[in-house]
Amino acid sequence: MEAVAHWTQNTTADFIYSISSNFVAQIETKIEEEGVSQNEIASKMNKTSGRISQVLNNPGNLSIRVMVELARALGMKVSIVAYDDHDPNNDLGPIAPDVFVKCWERAGYPASLLDVEKLSSCSSLYAFNKMIMPTITTAHISRSFVDVYFNTSDKKCRQHGVYSDPARIFDNSELRWFQDAPVDSFLGRIIWHEQNLTTKASQEKKA
Amino acid sequence: MSPSLVKFRLFGQVRQGKDRKVGILTGALGLNVTDGITTLSVNQKRDLRVNLERWLDGLNGPKSRFHNFEGDSIAPMAFVFKAQDHRFYGYRVNPLPKTAPSLQVIVLCSHAIKPGYETDPAQKSFIKKMAESPESLFALKSVFDDTPKHDTKGPLQWKQ
């Protein structure tokens, strides 16, 4: 059976529509999550609510300027990414931007290539955003340290902690304990656990 | 309704996933998705495809593009994809529970122009009826074979 080309391979306008519409879907998701009204966005963009509605309903004509204005009105940013997914004939179509965003979030919001290299050198990376209370966004653990990412009222923060046995801290029962813990307790728990292990080790050594 | 008339086919030209697939049921009264698609403008067709692919890619929103009817008293299995004012209703099912337990297939059944804020209960009843009809099950079975594949060569033998 002859393979049917992906619909975005029909015309460049189709491809543009797909990526623009996916961008608008990200904006709509944010609007739903934050409960922002179109009027609020319109006033931030110095445009009418009708114009915003028009823009969201006709993604094929989005300009980069409007994309940036929309994102900024919601406190977001825009990156334009070219990538090679080894699909030169576009049999599979463009990858949804949400996939890139999720990967970036799971990698701990790296802001530079140096951050990416640092993170990829960890022996294991875990995202805990679903398991830990909302103020903590992610935690990355390796054999010797933990990086906890959390939001304060005005900025995203990262706390770097060193300890000796991550597996014992992050077993299921202890994760439940962390769910309602504030950031300080979370980090305190790690330090406490580290001290505990050290004491235990020295006691064993003495014995 | 003859079993041979109701057919299921996968939606073409979109990225069907391994765990999520979307298709269309045709061949019986009320199964009007194909007709609905022909009434769409160029941009509405694009919207529908983008929204189908968002779900196929594993995304679960925004609700302005598609949503399920979880908790609905009439048709909790129902699902709707939107393309501006157009609505494409179907139901979610796993036709391969034995061989692919994680598979989700949306079987599109009907098309309507947005009737109002709430979905027409008659539309949901129709989706429920189609989800439970033997003809639909038969049509799905003809595309998805849930027979476990046994190794015809028998157990592996160690070479002496």
Summarize the SSE layout with pairings:
The complex is a heterodimer of chains A (207) and B (160).
Chain A: H1 12-34, H2 38-44, H3 49-57, H4 64-73, H5 97-106, H6 113-120, E1 136-141, E2 145-151, E3 156-162, H7 166-169, H8 172-178, H9 183-206
Antiparallel strand pairs in A: 1-2, 2-3
Helix pairs in contact in A: 2-3
Chain B: E1 7-10, E2 20-26, H1 33-38, H2 42-56, E3 66-68, E4 78-83, E5 86-93, E6 104-113, H3 121-132, H4 134-143
Parallel strand pairs in B: 2-6
Antiparallel strand pairs in B: 1-2, 3-4, 4-5, 5-6
Task: Walk me through the structure.
The complex is a heterodimer of chains A (207) and B (160). Chain A is mostly helical. Chain A has 2 domains: 7-81, 434 Repressor (Amino-terminal Domain), CATH 1.10.260; 108-206, no CATH class. In chain A, 49% of the residues lie in helices and 10% in strands. Chain A is built from 9 helices and 3 strands; from the N terminus they run ααααααβββααα. Chain A has helices spanning 12-34, 38-44, 49-57, 64-73, 97-106, 113-120, 166-169, 172-178, 183-206; strands spanning 136-141, 145-151, 156-162. Chain A has a 3-stranded antiparallel β-sheet with strand order 1-2-3, covered by helices on one side. In chain A, helix 2 crosses helix 3 (49-57). Chain A is flat. The mean pLDDT of chain B is 90. Chain B has 160 residues and is α+β, with helices and mostly antiparallel strands. Chain B has helices spanning 33-38, 42-56, 121-132, 134-143, and strands at residues 7-10, 20-26, 66-68, 78-83, 86-93, 104-113. Chain B has one domain. Chain B is globular and about 50 Å long. Classes of the chains: A mainly alpha (207), B alpha+beta (160).
